[in-house]
Amino acid sequence: MSERTVQLGSAAPGDVSRWRWAMADGVVLTGRALAHWVRQPAQVLVGLLFPVLLVVMFGYLLGGAMTVPGGGDYREFLLPGMFAMTMVFGVEATYAAVATDLARGVTDRFRSLPMASSAVLTGRAAADLLHAAVALAVMLACGWAVGWHPRAGLPAAAGAVGLLLLLRFALIWVGIHLALVLRRPESVVVLQILVWPLGFTSSAFVASESMPGWLGAVAGWNPLSATVTACRELFGNPGSGGGSFAAEHAVILAVAWPLLLVAVFLPLSVRRYRHLAG
Fold first, then answer.
1. How far apart are CA 171 and CA 160, in angstroms?
2. What's residue 244's pLDDT?
3. How far apart are CA 196 and CA 78, in angstroms?
4. CA quadruple 202, 208, 211, 214: dihedral sign
5. Where are its TM segments located (predicted)?
6. Which residues touch 191 (CB under 8 Å, ≥6 apart)?
7. CA 202 – CA 36 distance, rounded (Å)
8. Could you give the dihedral angle defined by the CA atoms of residues 102, 19, 263 and 106, in that order, rounded to the nearest 10 degrees?
9. Gap between the Cα atoms of 252 and 239, Å rounded
10. Would you call 22 exposed, middle or buried from its count of C-beta atoms within 10 A (0-12, 13-18, 19+)?
């Protein structure tokens, strides 16, 4: 029996060595996910360029017909919404990766190894958050290229980026939990059915004030709308105003919604992983 196995088996709960090994295992599995992306650059490239295509389509093909409440350039209104949508689109990749590992028996092999059980989930979450950071950087560069600029200062812009990554972190756990429940890669269509309504019933593309009353209320309380509105405010872009409670407290809700999702889906994911059939 290896020294590491002995340490893991004999360490008491809360022992520093167990945390150290768990972190090391998580780093290894994060590297595994990143290595897959290096070997499959086409898939990563398509995922990065798809939101750019949406910026071109909405910003240039449809943007001329769009009116921003209070005035302002539509592309500056659109870009914070597209940043948030990029974070949402990534949940499908999270789901597909976890479900594929389950279907191929890779997860069962990990569970049979002398490694921290938490590493499988934390490694996936860390890798997907790194991927989201790269995707967000690409979108920020795209926005800069089409004339978008943050106008409220660097600290506020950094806060907006932090809110976007917080939203992505919360959605990672939603994707992990759904994958552990459905367990089939082809079931990603179920997630797509959820993702697109979430995006288009938000204020990412148009202001909720321009929607019918009931739909505007739904869009205003959409978790994605909270992040979008907060980012418009922190970036200093048009369209951040509004008289509703959700619009006036967008920054608070942009923190509260993701934390609520993490509080619900992270424990559910851990519990579901621990009860997977061997």
1. 17
2. 79
3. 17
4. positive
5. 42-62, 82-104, 125-146, 152-176, 188-207, 250-270
6. 91, 92, 95, 175, 178
7. 33
8. 0
9. 17
10. middle
Give the whole-angstrom CA distance, residue 174 versus residue 254.
17
At 173, which amino acid appears? Answer: W
Residue with tokens 């560069």: 141
What CA dihedral angle connects 110, 48, 227 and 56, to 10 degrees? -160
Q: What is the mean pLDDT of the chain?
A: 82
Task: Tokens for 15, please give them.
Answer: 């022992």
Dist. CA 156–CA 193, nearest whole Å: 34
Closest CA to 148 of 162, 163, 160: 160
Cα–Cα distance, 179 to 269 (Å, whole number)? 9
49 — pLDDT class (breaks 50, 70, 90): confident
Full DSSP string of 157-195: HHHHHHHHHHHHHHHHHHHHHHHHHH--GGGHHHHHHHH
pLDDT, one tens digit per residue, over 153-199 is 899 999 999 999 999 999 999 999 999 988 887 777 777 777 888 88
Question: Do 8 and 100 form a contact (C-beta atoms < 8 A)?
Answer: no
Assigned token pair, 174? 């939603």
Q: How far apart are CA 115 and CA 113, in angstroms?
A: 5
Give dist(CA 260, CA 106) in Å, integer.
30
- Report how far residue 16's alpha carbon sits from residue 150's, in angstroms, rounded to the nearest whole number: 43
Q: What is the DSSP letter of 30?
A: H
41 exposure class (CB count in 10 Å sphere: 0-12, 13-18, 19+):
exposed
